[in-house]
DNA sequence: CTGAAAGCGCTTACAG
DNA sequence: CTGAAAGCGCTTACAG
C-alpha cells in the first residue's frame, strides 16, 4: 500500500504542495474555504505528513525522549515510573508528540544517549529523572542546548527547567502525625542516598526530629528493593530499643517491612506503625492496608510534559512546584502499645 | 552548538558524502583504510546521521512502536509491562533502534495510532499486546502491511509473526500439583475474559479439571485489579463449599486474595492455598510468600524484539515459542487441613 | 574504489 | 491569497 504524500493531497485539491502545508499547519496563506477542503481530502485519503520529511525541513521532530536508569526488576515493581509515563504520554499524545523510551545502564550511557538523540535530531527535548546532587547530566544537556525538564528538585538543576514536589514538607507532616499518635522512637528506611530527593528527605527528617526532640530517631539506607527493605527492617527491629514506627521511602520496602514484622511476631500497628511513601494500589492490597504518603503521579508526569513542550516552544520556563504529597492514614498506624 | 552533518565529516576526511555514507553503513565502496579514517573522524566530531534524513532517503526509521491499552493505575501496578519493555529495549538499543511508546484508550484508538505511525513513517514496525480472539488490529496491520509481532498466541494472529508461551501446559501443571497435595476443590480467579490468553487458560482449566474429575472446580472473572481480585476472593470464600486452593491470573489479585483470607480469619496455607500467575518480586514481599508461576519476562520481550527486527529485515518469520512458565512453590501452598 | 547527482517529502521565504 | 523553487541531510543507483 503506497503511503499518500503531500503531493497526492495537492493534486486532488488542485493546489500547490505549499498550500497544503499551510493548510495543515494552520498558517496563513490559504483561504478558510480552501483550508477546509484540503483538510477534508487529507483525512479522506489518510494523509499524515512524514515525520522524517517534516523534521528534515527544520521543523521539530515531534518527539521527546525519556531515559530510565534502573534495572528491569526495579522498573517493573515500582509503580511510580509507569504511572509517570502514563501521565507524560497523555499530555504528549494530545499534542501529537511521540515519546521515545530508552533504558540505560548508568549516567555515562544516559549522556551518550542524549548526545546521540541530539545528533540524530531524533527528539526535540528530554526528561531527566532521578536527579543527583552532583549530576553530570545537567551540564551535558546545557552544553548540547537540548531542551530538557528535570523531574525533581528543587535545586541542582542548573539552568534547566524542572517540576518538583515539596518532599521536606511531606516528611515533616508525617513525623508530626506519628508524634501526635504518641511515637517517640521513629526510624526511617531511606532510598538510594545519592539521589537528591533522598537527601532532601534525610535533611528534613534530621531537622524535624531535632525540632521535636526525638533523639532516638535513626535512618538506615536501602535501595528501594523488597530484599533490602526487609533486611533494613530486620536490623531495626532487632535492636534493643527498637522503633515503634518506621517510615519507608517507597511502597515496596514498606510492604516488605510489614511482612518482616509479621514474621517476627510483631503486631502492626500495635507493636509497630508503618508509613509508606508513594501511595499506590499496592498499599491497599496488604493486610493491614498501609498508611501512605501519596500524590497524583500521572498528573505530575503531565505537568512535566507540558513544561517540556513549553521549553521546546522557547517560552520562558523555570521551576514548577507540583502538589505536596498528603498522608492517607490507614490500618498500619496507631498509637504505640505501652510496653 | 551546530550539529555536525555528513558534509562536515566528508570535508575533514577529504572524501565525498557518498563515501562517508558507505563507510558508516558498512557497505562496500570504500577501502578499509578509508573506512577506518572516516569512522574515527565521525566519532571525533560526534557525528550521528540525522534519523530524519536517513528515514527520508528510504532507509528505515530505526524505530519501532508499542501501544499500550491499559489505564495508568493498572500499567503501574502490573510489573509485567515494565519488565517486558525493559527486555524489548535492551534488544532494540543494542541494534540502535528506538522504542516509541504510546498509551491508548481502546482498540480503535490503537488502530488509529498504527495508521498515523505508518503514514508518518515514524516506525518500521510494531508490537501487539493483549491479543483478543476477534482482534481487529490484526487485519488492520495486515492491510497496512506494517511489520508487526504479536506478543501472545498461539492462534488468532492471522499472517503476523508472534512469540508465545504455552499457558495451557503451565496451568495444567499447577492444577496437577495442587491435586497431588490433596486439593479437590480448586478455584480460579481469571483475568479479562476477552483476552485470548485468558481463554486459553480457561479452556485448559476446564480440560484438566475434567480429566482429573474435579467436578467442584469453579472460575470467577476479574480484571487484574486488587479490588476485583479481593471481591472475587470474598465471594469464593463465602460459599458453603469454599475452595481449598485458588489460582489467580496475576500477582496483584493473588496478593489481594491473601489479604482477604487473612481478614476472614483463614490461615494460608492451612485453610487456603494460593497460587499466583506472573511470578514477580511482589510475590516474595508478602507473608507467606506466594507460590507462583513465573518465567523470564524481560527475555520474552527481547525475543519479541528480535522477532520484529527479523520481520522488518524481510526474513521469513513465523511463530516463536518461548519458555513455559514454571511453578515455584513457596509458603502459600500446602496440603489442605482436614475439616 | 570514488565522485557527482538525483531524490526522499516536507517547510518556508520569495515572487506574483 | 497562491505558486514555483530552494533546501533540510541523508542514501543509492550511475558513471568513471
UniProtKB/TrEMBL annotation, chains A, B:
GO molecular function: DNA binding
Superkingdom of origin: Bacteria
Keyword Transcription set for record: yes
Any Pfam family matching the protein: Peripla_BP_3
Organism placement in taxonomy: Bacteria, Bacillati, Actinomycetota, Actinomycetes, Micromonosporales
PROSITE patterns, sorted: HTH_LACI_1, HTH_LACI_2
InterPro entries listed in its UniProt record: HTH_LacI (IPR000843), LacI/GalR-like_sensor (IPR046335), Lambda_DNA-bd_dom_sf (IPR010982), Peripla_BP_I (IPR028082)
Identification of the protein by name: LacI family DNA-binding transcriptional regulator
Keywords, ordered alphabetically: DNA-binding, Transcription, Transcription regulation
All residue ranges annotated as the HTH lacI-type domain in the record: 4-58
Keyword Transcription: yes
Region (Disordered): 319-339
